[in-house]
Amino acid sequence: MKDLTGSASASTPATPERAMALLEDIDRYPAWHPEVIKEAEVLERDAQGHPTKARCKLHVERGPLTRDFDLIMSVHVDPSGTIKLDRIRNEPADAERFDVTWRVEGTPSTRIRVDLAANLNVPRLVPLGGVGDALAQGLVSAATRALASS
């Protein structure tokens, strides 16, 4: 198992509400970042309509790492500015982790930040340095482009 972490942030002229709406609409992720997010589907919602569980198919091809991930994610939406997606384990002994946390801040301009934390079953000799930051930067760039075009 190898740890993979990364973070990135960017400003956008969109309102914090528009940014949160884009990031909470998990079903639409493939429309704005199809290179990595091949499929996404909300499986469950809470009484307020916020997603609580989603299925995602990701394709990661960065440097030495090329891998597809079929993930079931728990989703926690804090309307004040945080969306957290955490991989649900397939079984109790499953040690792989893939967590994505979006943060939206609206002062003085809207800023989007994403943090990735993963523990992946990849060969020990595969170097992962910089892969997490590159993935995070790709996510933030795609989100800000989607906000600018809508």
- Percent of sequence in beta strands: over 45%
Shape: globular
* Count of distinct strands: 7
Radius of gyration: 15 Å
Question: What percentage of residues falls in helices of 4 or more residues?
Answer: 10-25%
Based on the coordinates given, report the CATH architecture.
Answer: 2-Layer Sandwich
The CATH topology assignment is: Alpha-D-Glucose-1,6-Bisphosphate, Chain A, domain 4
Overview of this structure, please?
This protein is an alpha+beta fold. It has a single domain (2-149), classed as Alpha-D-Glucose-1,6-Bisphosphate, Chain A, domain 4 (2-Layer Sandwich). It is built from three helices and seven strands. It has helices spanning 16-24, 29-32, 131-149; strands at residues 2-12, 37-45, 51-62, 65-78, 82-87, 97-105, 110-120. The chain has a seven-stranded antiparallel β-sheet with strand order 1-7-6-5-4-3-2, with helices on one face. A hairpin with a 5-residue loop joins strand 2 (37-45) and strand 3. Helix 1 (16-24) crosses helix 3 (131-149).
